[in-house]
């Protein structure tokens, strides 16, 4: 199959992807140290937590989108605020929504297989993607801008895709209600920063695929 569209994931809901035009572009930096956190542990509900991805060909043609499953994770909460946490994503669970594959000669399952192959995520060798929170700060709408309605926090964390780990920062909505936490986010990453390219970076085949990949998550966690 040719000219498929790669996408992640951590973490974890989504509008059209396109250089941050409708979604915040995540700030990307070198891997950061994970600070020690205090507070109560909350287990992520892997049955209700979802991670979504969306990407397109150059020019916005043939958008592809789908989901990936979170297999394990937890958060720490202190004085009503999330202080840390992490979650794992099963890259073997990556699926493409059949509604996004409209070409008569293509199937969503074909795209699934191509994305999982060594051409992209090489899930046989790297079956798990991981996100580890390195910082959670309040979001100040008078000083900061976000395309995410109702953003409450800025989350920073180390995102590992294949054998590469980088730190990303993005706005999120976080609500801590007693024994439950609900969090939502939507942001764009540049896949090439993690070395994910089709054939070679800059090749005609790779050029046809947008480097921007939209990631979203809807996360729920409960106190242990």
TrEMBL record:
Pfam families: YceI. The keyword Ribonucleoprotein does not apply. Residues 1-26 form the signal peptide. Keywords: Signal. It comes from the Bacteria. Residues 41-222 form the Lipid/polyisoprenoid-binding YceI-like domain. InterPro entries: Lipid/polyisoprenoid-bd_YceI, TTHA0802/YceI-like_sf. PANTHER family: PROTEIN YCEI (PTHR34406). This is Polyisoprenoid-binding protein YceI. It comes from Chitinophaga terrae.
């Amino acid at each position: 199959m040719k000219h498929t569209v790669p996408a992640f994931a951590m973490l974890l809901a989504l509008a059209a992807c396109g250089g941050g035009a409708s979604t915040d572009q995540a700030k990307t930096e070198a891997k950061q140290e994970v600070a020690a956190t205090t507070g109560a542990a909350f287990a992520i509900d892997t049955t209700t937590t979802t991670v979504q991805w969306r990407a397109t060909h150059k020019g916005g043609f043939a958008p592809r989108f789908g989901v990936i499953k979170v297999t394990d994770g937890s958060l720490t909460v202190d004085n009503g605020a999330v202080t840390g946490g992490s979650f794992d994503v099963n890259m073997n669970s990556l699926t493409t929504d059949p509604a996004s594959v409209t070409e008569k000669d293509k199937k969503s399952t074909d795209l699934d297989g191509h994305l999982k192959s060594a051409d992209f995520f090489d899930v046989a060798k790297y079956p798990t993607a991981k996100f580890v929170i390195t910082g959670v700060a309040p979001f100040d709408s008078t000083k900061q801008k976000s395309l995410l309605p109702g953003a409450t926090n800025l989350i920073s964390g180390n995102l590992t895709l294949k054998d590469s780990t980088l730190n990303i920062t993005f706005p999120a909505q976080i609500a801590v209600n007693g024994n439950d936490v609900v969090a939502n986010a939507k942001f764009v990453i540049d896949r090439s920063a993690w070395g994910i390219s089709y054939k070679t970076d800059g090749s005609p085949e790779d050029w046809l695929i947008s480097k921007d990949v939209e990631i979203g998550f809807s996360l729920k966690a409960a106190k242990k």
